[in-house]
Amino acid sequence: MVRLILNILWFIFFGWALGIAYGIAALICFLLIVTIPFGVASLRLAVYAVWPFGRTIESRPGVHVASGIANILWLVLAGWWIALTHILAGIAQCVTIIGIPFGIANFKLVPAALWPLGREIVTLP
User: Fold this and answer.
1) Among residues 16, 58, 92, 99, which one has the fewest Cβ atoms lying within 10 Å of its Cβ?
2) Region 77-85: what's the mean pLDDT?
3) 3 state SS of 116
């Protein structure tokens, strides 16, 4: 029940904007054809960013070298500033006691924003 309440509050205040931002990034990546894997990763991040409580991101076993190279490219071009945005938002949210769970949710998005390929969203029991 607590996860549901936190997810609803997250969606009202932050989730919809993050979902739209990651969705627009995915559409741009799909339009550029070569960056379709980044578009898929952006959609995965969009789904997670809209409803983060009760789920986590784990590394997928059997990730290939191509994913590692693509992740390095992602890190250099986009990942670092997306992760920095999540870190700054998380710090700002942790200033108040009520915002601490939301700050932690932003911190959970940092590794996925830095290294999105080769990860999957897993629902917690």
Assistant:
1) 58
2) 88
3) coil
* CB burial of residue 59 (10 Å; 0-12, 13-18, 19+): exposed
What DSSP letter does each residue of 15-81 carry, written as one string? IHHHHHHHHHHHHHHHHTSTTHHHHHHHHHHHHHHHS-TTEEEEEPTT--HHHHHHHHHHIIIIIHH
Longest dimension (CA), the chain: 44
pLDDT at 35: 86
Query: Which tokens go with 29?
Result: 């990546």
User: Interior CA angle at 59 toward 122 and 4, to 5°?
Assistant: 25
Tell me which residue has tokens 């809209």: 50
Percentage, residues of the chain above pLDDT 70: 100
Closest CA to 69 of 61, 58, 77, 57: 77
Helices 100-114 and 2-10: crossing angle in degrees, nearest 10, is 70
The one-letter amino acid code at 76 reads: V
The overall average pLDDT reported for the chain is 89
